[in-house]
Model the fold of this input.
Amino acid sequence: MRSRAELKIDAKKKLNAYLKIPILVSIAIILISGLISLLQDEYFTLSTILSFLFTSVAGVYSSMLFLNIAKNDNLDPVEFSWMNVSKEKLLKCLIYSALMYIGTFLITFLSSVVGVIIAALASIFIMILEIYLSFSILAILDTDAPILNAVRISMDLVTGNFFKIIVFGLSFIGWFFLGILTMGIGLVWVFPYFSVSFANYYLELRRNKPMI
Done:
């Protein structure tokens, strides 16, 4: 299996070969997310709903783009068509996102009612769960697996690699910090770089572990 550094170098190579579309997609996501956040002060409920819907839908299409870029070993020209997602995959991804949102909200709300210690433990549980399910969307987009199968695929890939995945994510903190220091401008490159690298990690784990 390739090292973390090799996966990130490969992601940079594939991303930088055709940077225009990933950058444009990132700019669009950041700008629209910012516009929605402006509604939060006066229209909190509307802003929350719009933010969830936009984040979920944009996440699906951008994940498809970055997954295809990660697969682009021949460095073929990147096209907007690489974002195309079938209605069935989109629906499964949105249902999965909604279930995750509702589940984490209920766990957080119920635990906060019980007490501070339980709330803290619930937060840790949610963080661990999200790591184990972090490849679910990619599994749906890549294999068209049913939601439960995608969850099992993700958990299987993370098993035995839990702390490696945490370290992999933490290795991008410096990049995100630099992106923020540039008034967010640098994030239009950091976000695609992280996303392609993460898709690279998913594909690497798939090659080295049997699929469910």
Q: What stands out?
A: The CA atoms of residues 178 and 184 lie 9 Å apart. The chain has one domain: 4-208.
